[in-house]
Design a protein that fits this description.
The complex is a heterodimer of chains A (813) and B (120). In chain A, 29% of the residues lie in helices and 22% in strands. Chain A is α/β, with parallel strands linked by helices and 813 residues long. In chain A, helix 1 links the parallel strand 1 and strand 2. The radius of gyration of chain A is 32 Å and the shape is elongated. In chain A, 43% of the residues are buried. In chain B, the strands form three sheets. A four-stranded antiparallel sheet of chain B has the order 2-3-4-8, with no helix packed on it. Chain B has a three-stranded antiparallel sheet with strand order 1-10-9, with no helix packed on it. Chain B has one domain: Rieske [2Fe-2S] iron-sulphur domain (Rieske Iron-sulfur Protein, 3-layer Sandwich), CATH 2.102.10.10. Classes of the chains: A alpha/beta (813), B mainly beta (120).
């Protein structure tokens, strides 16, 4: 197949990153790529320009793609050549020299330029900037500023935004008196409110920068060179040079010139295509998406990925939905984190605030419906990683707001990561230290998932995952990359759970191998198999085509693997209720098969440990009891207290409820294990309040249903879902929640994580109030799953199971 | 079905080398697709896998990490995950996909009669 021609206008951070993403998706085989770059160099990190100005970086240290990169990747870079015109009908882009380039697909990544407000004396008669007047956007600007500053006494920066303050910091290193002239009433209005702006101003002034607020510059004084500024209020300021940093304007001229829709920027759709021409894309600071324009890198990376997914056909349904803007930065040594809005906008917005001007500390959060919609941290940004993540994912905040701003009386985990000793063990299951995580980041892994895959940190009980993610983020200096697979249900099939369910039901895929064939290009992924098997069983129930190789060994042979390769056998004992006859049988089996350890479990059952694989079918046969599913990602058991039969405090019959629950949900596959309990009174002896699902009898003949409890590697008291009047109602509400969890949780997400992620209010509205009109369907799915239940231990010894339980196959000549 | 081994097909030719002996392990169909089974060959335990693509591979039976039974692992393509602590290996090359200790591999093939043949 002949390659198509892809032309990219712009070789800045957006253009070059987009090309990188396209190449990463195999775009090199689809496209001949040509890039127009106005600057004569490769692509550099514009964010670091102020560091070049202040001398902490050398010019060549900020290059992201040196010229050799283009050669190595077969990208034709027209360095130093500006694109000057575009003919859509002929699909041609013209360079300044008049030489056209034909394209099949075009990407506009022209970025932005400095906005220069109307001021008298800015320009010379020939239209050039007056000597001593500069903007600060490129390496070339940087060089010119540095050259001019030598031997001068004072400099003024017009604009008190982020870029202006960074320029001011850079200029101080030349020994100049630096002034910041700002038209607004406080610094960094995009990121800060007046309170925070005022504290930042004081910090700046203590470092020797003079800040002039509410100053509207009308004139740049000086006939040949800059001599000073004049303001609208009549005041003056003497200075030898001026840096204009009053905002940016998108470079959209080339798009407007050929009739593409332009408002403040080039208007694009969710695939980053121009509104009027499906062969032209725009990305980065020049693009306007759903009315928003972005000047930070994180949104730009997201845009680049969507664009690359779409243009290469890798995922034609990829869509950019806009970004939530959060920044973490250091201005003149003052640490600042800012996200979302800076002032409350609705009357019900809740503001949590702390201010300690003397120490330069300021914290403010804006909360709407229990979720973070804005925040400012100044001085102390130790909580920034957590808050930005919460903001970005729109996760519900804990009721207790104080801990959002401060670490009070928390365990030593909360020392900042910088203070934490290198050999501190972060993952206690797999013994991974902070130092090992940092080494992994330094070796090039830039996402939490990549680091976890490489070090196995967080892959044990999983309780340290969020801390691992925070350390990775810290070690990356906040510039982590998100692995797209974190949103997939399983890593090997690039679909979210709702997308995957839709595809599976539409195409009637009933086995794991069929899913790989149709949805993953035929590529099997071992780690994805058990999650797919679980989901298919949930969706198809009795129609599911079981493939043993897709199951984790425990579910393949219905027993729990132990460290020595033997297995444990736990028969069903619902509610912890057994009988002498059952106990005799268990004792008989334990002796007959020389079971090395017989132990009572936490779920009020009896565990026979150390059984050889070959003996499993015989053990089940002799036990003649159903499987207790103590090995599966499934419903496990429901334990119980004595309840009202014998206990003098008992309010409800917890034993018979536990037996009914077991009958209802036994053997259900689910995203992770589900452990249940019933308690006959709020004394909670059976710990029902900390189970995945629990029912607690309360006075008045009712049951309180708890969901999302945990008392394992995480500890959480469950949330009360509702009160139910009868055992039957308990079963119904529990069933609805279980089905909702089965359909919506990520694989290996326990109910406690799921309930926190979705929010108890939303779950309650769906499960109890039927706000989405799905309750009847959920009930039906549960009934069908119940009808499809089969005891896996029954008939396991029949010959069709051939050699599944053989620990060694005989050699047959 | 195709065969993969370090020595390729040359080892299956009669008299190609005196060091190699063929050991027939039994029908390939005894190993369900996508799974592994253990054989004991001259006192050495060997896990033989049959991929869903129909290829067979043989590696040492125990995980070098903590002795996990590799034949009970999850297989996708030629990637194997140990059932005990999820260490990953490529059974084609024996390479560890995490960690530094790989697996010993054995040349193995399926002959014309559908028998799994191990070369030693």
């Amino acid at each position: 197949m002949e390659k198509k021609k892809l032309v990219v206008i712009g070789n800045g951070m957006a253009g070059a990153r987009t090309v990188e993403e396209i190449l990463a998706r195999g775009g090199g085989a689809q496209f001949d790529i040509t890039m127009f770059g106005e600057e004569p160099t490769g692509n550099y990190n514009r964010i670091l320009l102020s560091n070049v100005l202040n001398g902490s970086y050398k010019e060549d240290e900020i290059f992201l793609n040196p010229l050799s990169w283009y050669e190595e990747n077969n990208v034709r870079l027209l360095a130093g050549k500006r694109a000057s015109g575009l003919l859509r009908r002929a699909k041609l882009v013209y360079g300044e020299d008049g030489i056209p380039e034909h394209y099949d697909k075009l990407i506009i990544a022209t970025g932005s330029r400095a906005f220069i407000p109307q001021m008298e004396g800015t320009y010379m008669p020939d239209g050039s900037l007056k000597p001593g007047v500069f903007v600060f956007r490129s390496l070339d600007d940087c060089r010119q500023i540095a050259e001019w500053a030598r031997g001068k006494h004072s400099a003024a920066v017009i604009g008190g935004g982020l870029l202006g303050l960074e320029a001011a910091r850079g200029l101080q290193n030349f020994g100049l008196d630096v002034h910041v002239v700002h038209i607004g009433s406080h610094l960094m209005p995009q990121q800060l409110d007046p309170g925070a702006g005022d504290i930042l101003r004081k910090s700046m002034e203590s470092l020797g920068i003079k800040v002039h607020l509410k100053k509207n510059t009308t004139t740049i004084i000086g006939p040949e060179n800059v001599l000073g500024l004049a303001f609208a209020d009549g005041g003056n300021l003497e200075c030898d040079m001026v840096i204009i940093s009053a905002g940016i304007r998108a470079n959209w001229e080339i798009a407007a010139g050929c009739g593409l829709t332009v408002e403040r920027g080039i208007v694009v759709d969710d695939q980053m295509r121009c509104a009027d021409d499906p062969d032209i894309y725009a990305v980065g600071e020049c693009a306007q998406h759903r009315g928003h324009m972005y000047g930070l890198v994180a949104p730009l990376w997201e845009q680049a990925k969507v664009l690359a997914d779409h243009i290469t056909g890798k995922n034609t349904r990829a869509a950019y939905h806009g970004s939530k803007v959060a920044t973490k930065l250091k201005v003149m040594g003052v640490e600042v984190a800012s996200m979302g809005i800076v002032e409350p906008q609705l009357p019900e917005d809740e503001v949590v605030q702390f201010s300690e001007p003397k120490r330069g500390t300021y914290k403010k959060l804006i909360i709407r419906d229990g979720r973070l919609v804005g925040g400012i941290l100044l001085g102390d940004i130790s909580k920034a990683a957590y808050l930005i993540q919460t903001f970005d994912r729109n996760t519900p905040l804990p009721e207790e707001r104080l801990h959002l701003l401060f670490d009070i009386g928390d365990p030593p985990k909360q020392v900042t990561f910088a203070e934490m000793s290198t050999n501190t063990q972060v993952c206690n299951c797999n013994g991974v230290s902070k130092g090992a995580l940092i080494a992994c980041v330094n070796s090039g892994k830039r996402s939490a998932k990549a680091v976890m895959d490489a070090t196995r940190a967080g892959m044990g009980c999983g309780s340290c995952k969020s801390m691992v993610a925070e350390i990775v983020e810290w070690a990356c200096g906040g510039e982590t990359e998100e692995d797209p697979s974190v949103h997939y249900y399983v890593p090997g099939v690039p679909l979210t759970k709702p997308e995957l369910i839709r595809a599976i039901t539409e195409r009637e895929l009933k086995s794991v191998s069929a899913v790989f064939d149709y949805l993953a290009g035929g590529k099997e992924d071992a780690a994805s198999k058990p999650g797919l098997a679980s989901l298919l069983k949930t969706l198809w129930k009795g129609e599911y085509e079981d493939e043993k190789d897709a199951r984790f060994i425990n579910e393949r042979i219905h027993a729990n693997i132990q460290k020595d390769g033997t297995f444990s056998v736990v028969p069903q004992i619902p509610g912890g209720i057994t009988s002498p006859a059952q106990l005799r049988r268990i004792a008989f089996v334990a002796e007959k098969y020389h079971v090395p350890l017989v132990k009572l479990t936490g779920g009020q059952r009896i565990d026979l440990l150390g059984i050889r694989k070959d003996d499993l079918p015989k053990v089940w046969h002799d036990l003649d009891m159903p499987s207790g599913y103590a090995y599966g990602k499934s419903y496990r058991t429901c334990k119980s207290c004595v309840g009202s039969d014998f206990c003098r405090f008992g309010l409800g019959d917890s034993i018979s409820l536990a037996l009914k629950i077991e009958k209802e949900f036994q053997g259900f596959d689910s995203p992770h294990k589900m452990k249940l309990a019933t308690a006959g009174c709020p004394r909670n002896c059976s710990e029902a309040m900390v189970k995945d699902l629990g029912a607690v009898a309360v006075e008045g003949g009712q049951w309180e249903i708890y969901i999302g409890g945990a008392a394992g590697s995480s500890i959480r008291k469950g949330d009360v879902l509702c009160k139910a009047d009868t055992h039957e109602d308990v079963l119904m509400y529990m069933g609805r929640f279980i089905q909702y969890y089965r359909e919506n949780a990520k694989y290996l997400e326990r109910t406690h994580g799921f309930v926190e992620r979705i929010g108890i209010e939303k779950i309650r509205s769906i499960v109890i109030e039927d706000s989405e009109g799905i309750a009847e369907r959920l009930d039906r799915e549960i009934a069908e799953s119940k009808a499809a239940y089969k005891d896996p231990w029954k008939d396991a010894w029949l010959p069709e199971n051939d050699n599944q339980f053989a620990s060694v196959l005989p050699i047959l000549q | 079905m195709t065969a993969h081994s370090e020595t390729g097909h040359s080892g299956t030719q009669q008299g190609a080398t005196n060091l190699m002996t063929e050991i027939k392990l039994g029908p390939a169909a005894n190993i369900p697709a996508g799974q592994g089974r253990v054989y004991e060959v001259e006192g050495e335990r060997i896990a033989v896998f049959r991929t869903r693509g129909g290829d067979v591979y043989a590696v040492q039976a125990e995980c070098p990490h903590r002795g996990g039974p590799l034949a009970d692992g999850l297989l996708g393509g030629t990637t194997l995950i140990c059932p005990l602590h999820s260490l990953k290996f490529d059974i084609k090359t024996g390479a560890a996909l995490f960690g530094d200790c790989g697996l010993k591999t054995f040349p193995v093939a399926v002959d014309a009669s559908g028998q799994v043949v191990l070369l030693r």
